[in-house]
Design brief:
single chain, about 675 residues, alpha/beta, FAD/NAD(P)-binding domain, 3 domains, 22 helices, 21 strands, globular
């Protein structure tokens, strides 16, 4: 009997998502067991395998995750709706507890509370070398709580450990080849993928999974103009948009005024690298409350602007993992809508989210200040649903008479929308805004404001899932209401840890950070950058340094990634299109067209490629909810995606091996 031909699979990009894919390959490896075919797994990445570039383990510990330790896992659980087998393992928090206990023996009580199955997975894998090379990581793990925000390096170490576990779990006989390189090309030759690496290697494989992360893109018109105005002029320093760990902030001189664009998560990382990262210290305030910043003298002076002009809101301090938001109206719509329905965000989703947020406000408020109500809570809830969203305040005015006791969504979405008479006045206003937000965060579940805002942050997953693939029209997906919701949901749901906001407040009070105002207009003139806000009188700032503390949104239609660009030119890949309300498919999304379960690329002819897959961030506009790390017990899109693509790739290997076996000539 002839032997089946060995087959091979190439995984391009081996960060945390890649580690999960390998774990799913191991879990589903029985799919090719019938052929008995040996196979090779090629792992391609020029960064640390498992951690990748973003989560690499050598980065400063000043950079922390935006996610809680107890809310991250790279293992499946019974809540994940997938076809593959569930193989549970420790969450990031549990892993930190197990590591700290193994090395110090001081967390035995917490270890006993971890499921024995997950403990057994931990026991079978060696710890990554970085934990011994950087003992400060162990120091961080020792007091770790479920609600802690671990450093990014800790998550990177966890991901490298998960990858090590996954590699050990692969069947005996699977050959793993690691390539410290970047893929520069993927093309089909006689129907099979050929992967070209920048090391000069060429890999001829039977299937390829692309887990590329955030894609480089072509310059926008604004970027190109900035480049033209500043190139070759030594007076300018422009730190271009990118992940903070990839930006060269050494170019930013101490003591210099710096214009910073962006007040989201990228800004907080930049802020830390330019202050505490340069030797500054945060100490308890003299009054025993808050923080005080002790400068090192190496800091620049940061003048910051963004569209709203204020920082992302701080996460609440619950003393544990956050409670599930009550999304009764949105969930009822999700559970009742037909799978084939075309949803309109403005009509079907936004009003329900707004009503759910109002209900969260009043349900919380009634337990805190019942005297604010002139009618029972049930009457207030009924009034919410008694008419259009635009008339909410009028319907509630007699039921909750004091305006400050009613939820003001417009003020929450545009907090700095007024006019300010001077930069000093605006700086003071933002400091008060930060202090008030920190107060609300400290209240935990006893803040009606945070309860309402948490609805918007929590609704993002449901919305993105409902609108995924062909769930809505092109106009609805690209509409202003949907874009505003995503931006606002990010501002209130993906904000920094409360301690980061406290550090920003200390820096503002120390004069290290100033706020230009909303919608800062940038100009280049007379050898300098200039920025000012139309909302703040006298806000003009001049500087020779500009730091863009944000990242461009991915967009396959303007990609600069060589692999994606070549696949697009060859017709093996196309942008995802949503149907227009008027009919047809006129508008291309920023995402890539893929099959829903298998993540196989769909070519320009509308036919799926059987052996090339794309997962993760480049398909977030298509699939939805692919950016954030997976949460346990949440049916994480990330884990459904990695299981589906692993099974599809293994199916390809099985079919190739079986076809080769059956086509062998018989000489009997």
């Amino acid at each position: 009997m002839p032997s089946p031909r060995p087959t091979s699979l190439c995984l391009v990009g081996v960060g945390p998502r890649g580690a999960s894919i390998v774990e799913r390959l191991a879990a589903n490896a029985g799919l090719i067991g019938e052929t008995g075919a040996p196979w090779t797994l090629h792992l391609v990445d020029d960064s640390e395998l498992g951690a990748g570039r973003v989560w690499r383990t050598d980065q400063p510990l000043d950079l922390c995750m935006n996610t809680l330790a107890g809310a991250v896992t790279l293992f499946t659980d019974p809540f994940v709706t997938m076809q593959g087998p569930v193989l549970e393992g420790p969450t990031l928090y549990e892993w930190c507890v197990l590591v700290a206990n193994e090395l110090s023996g001081i967390r035995e009580n917490e270890v006993a509370q971890i499921d024995p199955v997950r403990r057994a997975v931990y026991a079978g894998v060696e710890l990554p070398d970085v934990l011994f090379d950087r003992p400060e990581l162990i120091d961080e793990m020792t007091p770790m709580r479920p609600e802690s925000h671990p450093s990014r390096a800790i998550y990177g170490a966890y991901a490298t450990w998960v990858l090590a576990h996954a590699l050990e779990a692969l069947p005996v006989g699977v050959l793993v080849e690691q390539h410290e390189a970047r893929a520069t090309s993927v093309r089909l030759v006689d129907g099979s993928p050929v992967v070209q690496l920048d090391s000069g290697e060429t890999l001829e494989v039977d299937d390829v999974i692309l887990s590329l992360g955030w894609l480089a893109r072509q310059d926008t018109a604004a970027d190109a103009e900035l480049t033209r105005r500043t190139a070759g002029d030594d007076r300018f320093v422009w730190v271009r948009p990118d992940s903070p760990i990839e930006q060269d902030l050494s170019q930013v001189p101490a003591g210099a005024p710096v214009i910073v664009r962006g007040l989201g998560m990228g800004f907080f990382d930049t802020m830390m690298l330019l202050t505490q990262g340069r030797g500054g210290r945060f100490v308890p305030g003299a009054d025993g409350a808050g923080l005080q910043y002790v400068p090192s003298g190496q800091e620049p002076e940061l003048h910051v602007t963004s569209r709203r002009g204020v920082p992302f809101r701080a996460k609440s301090l619950y003393g544990g993992l956050p409670p599930a938001a009550r999304l009764s109206r949105l969930a009822a719509f999700r559970d009742g809508v037909a799978a084939s329905a075309v949803i309109d965000f403005d009509r079907d989703l936004w009003p329900r989210i707004v009503l759910d947020a109002h209900e969260a406000w009043y349900r919380t408020l009634v337990g805190l200040r019942p005297e604010a109500f002139a009618a029972p809570l049930d009457a207030v809830i009924q009034a919410l649903d008694a008419g259009a969203v635009d008339g909410l305040d009028a319907r509630l005015a007699t039921l909750v008479p004091e305006p400050t006791d009613r939820f003001d969504l417009a003020a929450a979405m545009n907090p700095a929308g007024g006019r300010f008479d001077s930069p000093a006045i605006f700086d003071a206003w933002v400091a008060d805004y930060l202090a008030a937000d920190l107060h609300e965060s400290a209240l935990g579940v006893a803040s009606e404001l945070k309860a309402a805002l948490w609805v918007f942050g929590s609704a993002r997953k449901t919305v993105s899932t409902l609108l995924a693939f062909d769930g809505t029209t092109a106009e609805s997906f690209a509409g202003q209401a949907h874009r505003d919701f995503l931006a606002f949901g990010g501002m209130v749901g993906s904000g920094p840890p409360a301690f980061r906001s406290a550090q920003l407040l200390a820096l503002a009070r120390a004069g290290v950070v100033h706020f230009i105002g909303p919608a800062g207009l940038l100009q280049v003139s007379d050898g300098e950058f200039r920025a000012e806000s139309p909302n703040v009188a006298g806000s003009l700032v001049r500087a020779h340094v500009l730091v863009d503390a944000w990242m461009h949104a991915h967009d396959v239609t303007v990609t600069a990634d060589p692999v994606i660009a070549e696949l697009s030119v060859s017709g093996s890949l196309q942008a995802h299109h949503r149907a227009s309300r008027a009919g047809g498919y006129p508008l291309a999304d920023a995402g890539v067209d893929i099959e829903r379960v298998t993540s196989r690329l769909i070519g320009s002819d509308g036919v799926a490629l059987s052996n090339v897959h794309l997962v993760g961030i480049p398909v977030s506009d298509t699939r939805g909810d692919t950016v954030i790390s997976p949460m346990p017990r949440a049916d994480a899109t990330f884990l459904r995606e990695t299981d589906g693509v692993a099974r599809a790739a293994l199916d390809t290997l099985s079919r190739v091996a079986a076809t080769t076996l059956s086509s062998e000539p018989s000489f009997a």
